[in-house]
Amino acid sequence: MTDTLHIIGGGMAGSEAAWQAANAGLNVVIHEMRPQVGTFAHQTGNLAEMVCSNSFRSDDSEQNAVGLLHWEMRAAGGLIMEMADKHQLPAGGALAVDRDAFAEGVTERLRAHPNVRVEEGEITALPDDGHWIIATGPLTSGTLGQAIAAETGADALAFFDAIAPIVYAESIDMDKAWMQSRYDKGETEEEQKAYLNCPMDKDQYEAFIDALLAADKTEFHEGETAGYFDGCLPIEVMAERGRETLRHGPMKPVGLTNPHQPDVKAYAVVQLRRDNKLGTLFNIVGFQTKMKYGAQTDVFKMIPGLENARFARLGGIHRNTFLNSPTLLDAEMRLKSKPNIRFAGQITGVEGYVESAAMGLLAGRLAVAEMQGRTLPPVPETTATGALVTHITGGAEAKTFQPMNVNFGLFPPVEGLKGGRRGRKDRYKAYTDRAKADWQSWLDQ
Ligand SMILES: Cc1cc2nc3c(=O)[nH]c(=O)nc-3n(C[C@H](O)[C@H](O)[C@H](O)COP(=O)(O)OP(=O)(O)OC[C@H]3O[C@@H](n4cnc5c(N)ncnc54)[C@H](O)[C@@H]3O)c2cc1C
Asked: Which fold has domain 4-162+319-444?
C-alpha cells in the first residue's frame, strides 16, 4: 500500500498529479467514478474533461498570471499543458483547445503509462491509511462530500461558492473612499480601520439600484440551484426585493463618517474588506452576484471610488464543493487531521482548469517527495504556483475564504516599480521574470 499513490478523481488536477508521480517512478492508481457515476456537467468517461468553455485563457507568460502558470507547468513537464499545446485551436492570445481530442489525449497517455492504473468507480469514504490525493473537484460526489464534511466539520466544506468581486487596492480612488470600521469597532487601529468605505448620495444610490435591476444575469444550470438561498442572496435579488433593501443590508450607511466630507451624511455606503494578508486585494462585502461579467464591471464602476477599479476577479455563485483550506490544510496541502490525505484542484479553493491542474502538479510532486523520504523546500510565493498555494493554505482570510483565480494581486510586490495603470506593463514583466527564475530554481533542487 505505501509504495502506491492513490488519487481520487481523474479531472484536471488528478490527471496532472498522476502524471507527475508516475514519471517520478511511483505506482499510481486513479480512482475515477465516471462513466459509472456521472455529474450534471460532465458528458464523457474521459479523464480531464473540460466541463464548459474550451479555453485555458491567456497564454501570455510575460503580462498575464494565467499565462505564467502555463509557463510554469510546461517547465515542469506537465501533461495538461502538453496536451493543450498539441490540440490547440486558433484563438488570438488565448489558449483554446479541441476539448475531445485534449481529454482523449490525456486519457490515452495516462492509461498507457506503465506506472498508472485507472480504476473506475466512486470512492465514498475517507481512507485511513496509505498515500492519497483527493482531487474530486467542484462536483465531488455527494457521499464522499458528506464523508469529507464529517471529518472537517460541516462549516469547513462549502457546496456553493458565493463570490463577491475582488478589486486591486491600488485601483481604488482614496480621494473618495476612506478606511473605517463601523462605529470604529476594534481594539487596535488596524481593526478600527479594517474596512474601506465608498459613499453614495441619494441620486447615486437610485441610479445604482436601477442599473442592478436592469443588468444581464446568468441563469443557473439545471441541478445547480438547491440550497443556495439559505446562505447568501445575490445582490441583484436583494435589490429586487425592494429598493431600500440594500440600504438596510450590506450598504447601510450607519456608524461611519466620511473624512473627505465630515458634514455630509452618506445615503448608502459600499464596504470593501481586505482579501489577503498582503493588503493588495479587497472584496466588496455582500456583493455576491449572478450578473454577467460585462454588466458587473459597468455596474460596480458606478460606485464612487471604484470608477477606475480593476477587478482581480468578478463575482459569481456556482455549485462548487470546496474546503476552507486556510484552516484545514497545511502548507504541503495535507489535511491537518489526516495527513495521509492531500487535497488538490478546485476542491482546495482555487478556481479554473489551469489553477486546478497547477495544484494537481504541485500535490503530485509533494507526494513523491514525501514517499521518497525527502522534503521539498516551500514553493516561492513569487511564482504563480507558489502565490496560489500560499493564498489557499494561509494567505487568504479564512473567515471569508472563497475560490480564487491566479492574479498578480497574490504576488508579493516588486519593490521600486511605479504603481498604477501606467506602470503596469513593466510591473507585470518584473513579476513574471522573477517568477520564472524562482520557479526554475525550485524545480532544479
Ligand atoms: C458547471 C461548471 C462550469 C465550469 N466552467 C469552467 C470554465 O469554463 N473554465 C474553467 O476554467 N473552469 C470551469 N469550471 C471549473 C472547472 O470545473 C474546474 O476548474 C476544473 O475542472 C477543476 O479541476 P479538478 O480536477 O479540481 O476537478 P474536475 O475536473 O471536475 O475533476 C474531478 C473528477 O473527480 C471525479 N469524482 C468526483 N467525485 C468522485 C468520487 N467520489 N470518486 C471518484 N471520482 C470522483 C469527477 O468525475 C471528475 O472527473 C466549471 C465548473 C463547473 C461545475
From this structure: FAD/NAD(P)-binding domain (3.50.50)
